[in-house]
Amino acid sequence: MSLITNRLKAFSGVLIALLSLTISAFAGHGEGETFDPGKTITSHIGDAHDWHLWGHTSIPLPVIVFSKERGLDVFMSSHFHHGEMAHRGYMIKDNSIVAVNELEDIPAEEATINEELTAQLWDISITKNVASLLISVFLICWIFISVARAYTRNPNSPPRGLQSLIEPIILFVRDDVIKTSIGPKYEKYLPYLMTAFFFIWFNNLLGLVPVFPGGANLTGNIAVTLVLALLTFLVTTFSANKNYWHHIFAMPGVPAWVLVLLTPIEILGVFLRPFVLMIRLFANVTAGHIIILSFFSLIFIFGDGGKNMAAGYGVGIVSLVFTVFMSCLELLVAFLQAYVFTLLSSIYIGAAVEEHHGHDAAHSY
Fold first, then answer.
1. Which residues, including other chains, have CB under 8 Å from residue 320's CB and lie 6 or more apart?
2. pLDDT digit string, tens, across residues 20-37
């Protein structure tokens, strides 16, 4: 009984700490300012040139911009003062870097945007999503190199620590997802599919952590899901055999007049499959973030921008309960979306490399 009581106390402490952290993270509005939930949610799920922590506190990130007229310029995003200042002829507008005519540091509202120079500008800054990508790659490499070294040191020992966590997942993805979908040739595509699974899963989990180095919506960025889907498309296309393309352009056993309708649909399907992969991952991950952030926003909507914090904390308790439920559900979704992406990619690749045995079987009789 005492153990259960202690765990309940610990769980309650975590809930209170999470509520306090959430309120402090969202409370970046001055007294008397109207809380805009749409703008707040959009800023949290979108990319940024700094890593927001709480209130007006954030981690500055490198701004790297290039244009033929001004050349390469590198500085920290803290010079923008959260978008309130223009620095070295640049400022932030709608979360993007734009060029201005004034080269000195002036308030953003006094700066004049140079549309022609902005159109020629190359923004290759280390944004929040790029930083999150680098962090996740480092974590993935560190985890799997550590596990590999443990196997090398003790090849005959049972798995322990990270090994006992990672090994069942690797075996599940390899045997029940990739191997069953592709068949005997699965080993050729194992590195890409396994990497895609763990990359999506790890970044989904990091996106659910409300504090640094989590909180970035990397797999909810359509540019990232586009690249992942494009990789699957390229692997499928360049691995496809003659049998696959024969079924795409002239499906065997189908009358010629039906092929007039069927072939364009099959060709369209080749491009729709990666498009569906991209949209599914992007939409599901982003929707989860929006729902959780919407529950948090209720605290400030009912709290009237800090004027009625008693009501805000009252609603906060209810919002926190729903948030905890959604967070638990998102833990499942984080794994499920990685699983679905890997499964569908494996099915597409398996269909592209499948050999046609019908003709050979007919002659064997």
1. 15, 18, 19, 22, 295
2. 555 555 555 444 456 666
- Give the residues of the chain that fall short of pLDDT 50: 29-32, 359-365
Is 361 a member of any domain? no
Query: Residue 252 is which amino acid?
Result: P
Do 162 and 105 belong to one domain? no
Residues 6+ apart with CB under 8 A from 199: 136, 140, 228
**What is the structure's pLDDT at 230?**
95
Are 148 and 316 in contact by the 8 Å Cβ rule? The answer is no
Q: Encode pLDDT of 178-214 as tens digits.
A: 999 998 888 999 999 999 999 999 999 988 887 788 8
Mean of the per-residue pLDDT values of the chain? 81
| Domain region containing 77 | 62-125
Look up residue 88 and give its DSSP letter.
T
Pair 182, 323 in one domain? yes
| DSSP class per residue in 326-365 | HHHHHHHHHHHHHHHHHHHHHHHHHHHHPPP-HHHHHHH-
- Between CA 117 and CA 205 the distance in angstroms is 39
Three-class secondary structure of residue 40 per DSSP: helix
Q: Give me the half-sphere count of Cα atoms (radius 13 Å) on the Cβ side of residue 155.
A: 1
Task: State phi, psi for 160 to the nearest 5 degrees.
Answer: -145, 155
| Same domain assignment for residues 235 and 335 | yes
